[in-house]
Design brief:
It contains nine helices and 13 strands. By secondary structure, the protein is an alpha/beta fold.
Length: 305
C-alpha cells in the first residue's frame, strides 16, 4: 500500500466565527503509528472527526485510504476504527452484548479476537459496562475498534485519564495489534512519553494549524541545540531555523532546525530529546499567538504547509 492513510489539502473547519482547523495540509504515509500532538483547541479532535467521516470540512479536501470520508460511505467506514475520547458505549449493556452489537454492524468483525483481548485484560464478558472502571471501559472501547479489523485506527486520546497500569495495558493492546496485523494508527495524545515509546511519525499542531509533520527519526536528527556565550554569540549559520531560544547571563542556546552537517564550529552543538523538540514547538506556538509563517514551515514527504 502506497496511498497515504490520511491526506489533506488546505483543510479547514469553521464553527461559527471560530476556526477549529485552518490551512491543514499533510500526508501521513502508510505503515506508521502517527502521533498528533498539540494543546487543547489546536484542532486535533476536529481533524480526527473529519477523518472518521463524522464532520464535514468547511473548505479544503481530506482523503482517508484514498477516499473522501463520509458518514454515508459504509465501505470506507468499515475499514476505519474510530475511538472518540468520550469512549461511547452502551452503559447498560454487558460486554458480551456490546460485542454482539459490534458483530451485527461490522461485516469484518472478529469475535474470537474480541473475546481473547478482554480475557487477557481480565474483563468478563458478563460484566456490565457501567460497572467497569474508566480504564476497563477504555479497553473495551479499543477492543471494539480492533475487532473490526480495520486498516486504519483513528484514536482521540485513547489513554487519557487512565491510571498507569490501565494505560500500559491499553498501549500494549494497541501495539500488539500493530505488530500482528500491521494496522495503521493515527492517535492524538498529551502524553509525550507515549510518542517516543509507540509512535514513529509525529504531527504537531498549534492554533488550528499543522506546524510539523515527519518521521520521528528525521525530526530528532534535524534539530539541534546551538549554544554560545551571550556576549560573543556569532551569527547563526545559513539554513538554520530557530524554534526556541533560552538565554542566561552568560549563554544563549537556540533549539533549531538545521541541515547537517552544520559546517560552523563556532557553536556548541548538542542533541535535544524528542520531548524538548515537541515542547519547543508548543511553546513557540503559545508565545507567538499564531502559527509560524509558511517560510518557517517544514516540508518533508509532502507533509506540511
Amino acid at each position: 500500500m502506497t496511498t497515504p492513510v490520511i491526506e489533506t489539502d488546505g483543510l479547514a473547519k469553521r464553527f461559527g466565527r471560530k476556526w477549529g482547523l485552518r490551512d491543514c495540509t499533510l500526508s501521513v504515509p502508510p505503515g506508521k503509528v502517527a502521533a498528533l500532538v498539540g494543546p487543547n483547541g489546536a484542532g486535533k479532535s476536529t481533524l480526527l472527526r473529519m477523518a472518521a467521516g463524522l464532520s464535514r470540512p468547511t473548505s479544503g479536501l481530506i482523503r482517508v485510504l484514498g477516499r473522501v470520508p463520509s458518514a454515508n460511505d459504509a465501505s470506507l467506514l468499515q475499514r476505519v476504527g474510530y475511538l472518540d475520547q468520550e469512549r461511547p458505549l452502551y452503559r447498560g449493556f454487558r460486554v458480551e452484548e456490546m460485542f454482539r452489537f459490534g458483530e451485527g454492524t461490522n461485516p469484518r468483525w472478529n469475535m474470537a479476537r474480541a473475546q481473547a483481548y478482554v480475557d487477557q485484560l481480565g474483563i468478563s464478558l458478563r460484566d456490565r459496562v457501567n460497572g467497569l472502571s474508566g480504564g476497563q471501559q477504555a479497553q473495551v472501547a479499543l477492543t471494539m475498534c480492533l475487532a473490526k479489523q480495520p486498516e486504519l485506527l483513528v484514536l482521540d486520546e485513547p489513554a487519557a485519564e487512565l491510571d498507569p497500569v490501565a494505560r500500559e495495558d491499553l498501549l500494549r493492546l494497541l501495539m500488539r495489534e500493530v505488530a500482528e496485523q500491521g494496522t495503521n494508527v493515527v492517535l492524538s495524545t498529551h502524553a509525550l512519553g507515549d510518542v517516543g515509546s509507540i509512535c514513529d511519525y509525529l504531527i504537531i499542531m498549534t492554533h488550528s494549524r499543522v506546524v510539523l509533520a515527519d518521521d520521528l527519526e528525521f525530526v530528532v536528527e534535524s534539530h539541534r541545540f546551538l549554544s554560545a556565550t551571550s556576549s560573543n554569540a556569532p551569527a547563526l549559520p545559513e539554513g538554520v531555523t530557530v524554534i526556541d531560544t533560552r538565554t542566561s547571563s552568560r549563554d544563549v542556546t537556540h533549539l533549531a532546525r538545521i541541515t547537517l552537517p552544520l559546517g560552523d564550529e563556532t557553536w556548541q552543538v548538542a542533541v535535544p530529546t524528542l520531548d524538548e523538540i515537541i515542547m519547543a514547538y508548543l511553546r513557540r506556538g503559545r508565545d507567538s499567538g499564531s502559527s509560524p509563517s509558511p517560510d518557517d514551515s517544514t516540508t518533508a514527504n509532502g507533509g506540511v504547509s
